[in-house]
Every structure is written in structure tokens, then in C-alpha cells.
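Field reference: sequence -> structure
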Amino acid sequence: MIARMRSSAVLLSILLLLGGCLNLNIRGNVSVGSSTSGGYEAIGRPSDLGRYHGIRVESVRVRDGVRPPGDLPGQIRRDFMRTFEKRTGLTETASPALVLATELVELRYEGGSEADREWSSQTVLHARLLDAETGRAAAEARLICRVRGADANDPDRISRAATKALRRWLEDGGVRMDKEKDEEEEDES
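Structure field:
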């Protein structure tokens, strides 16, 4: 009986030791890796965006007190323009057209230290799609961009998350997206 209890205790100790090692290994792999995600919160009810054939992307404004890394506003604008150019049928000269007005309203870093590399950032953009002819809002949303990993403050990664959020919002609003090109981009990143 005592021998069984000892062997059970030894086995339990070994399992706990192995489990701890596995946990550290998994945690290490997760923290060394990185991820981006983008979503949105719609504000109000959008009109049918599928009826528009043109788009103009204004410069991304930055709310007072928000300090973006590098040229984040410029990077976001370039990536948004690339998204329209490559993934939609929307062009700058077609009509009826939309105007995308975006403001960087929040940028927050959380957690971690240099040793454990578990940094994360959350960026919030207030985006409005305006009818170019009337100036009326066609759709409005908060684009929420999250980046995890050691490079959570990298403008390219934050912009990639913002572009994911924009694509989801537009697609749900009726803008046709080229799925094949989306899949190619996912393979590259």
C-alpha cells in the first residue's frame, strides 16, 4: 500500500514537472509569436454601401493627446488606399462616391516586459464613410485593432490590424471584396 502511494506520488510529481515544462514551452511559443486582429463596432445603421462605385481616402487625423509610433497615420492611409485599389471595384474617379474620414482616437499599450515579451496594443479609429455628393454620413464605426507580441507598437502591424477591421466593416456594409486576394494576403502575413 505504501509502495503504491509512493509510486503514485512520484508519478504525480513527474507529471506536474512535465506539465510545468510544457506550459512554459507553450507560453514561450505564444509570447514569442505575434498576432493581429481587427474588428469594428458599428455606430448607427449604415446605408447600402454596395451602390457606391468610388472612394476617396482622406488623411488620418490624430486626436489631441494620442502619440502614434512612427508614421502610423500615413501607413494606415496607404494601406486603406491599397485595400480599395486591390480588393474592391471602387476607384477614386467613379461616381457615386464615398469619402473615408478617419481619426485615431485611442492607442493603448498593456502588459509585459522586455523579458517576457507579452506586450499588446489596442488602437481605436473612428471611421466615417460620407456620401461625396451630399456630405451625409453613409456609415460610421469604431475600428478596433489589436496587436500582440514583442512588436505590438510596430506601425506596420497596427496598420495591418486596422485594414482587417476596415475590410470586415466594408464587407458587412455591402461592399464586394475580392476573396482570392484576401486569401493571398493572409498567406503572405
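Note: Residues 2-32 form the longest helix (31 residues).
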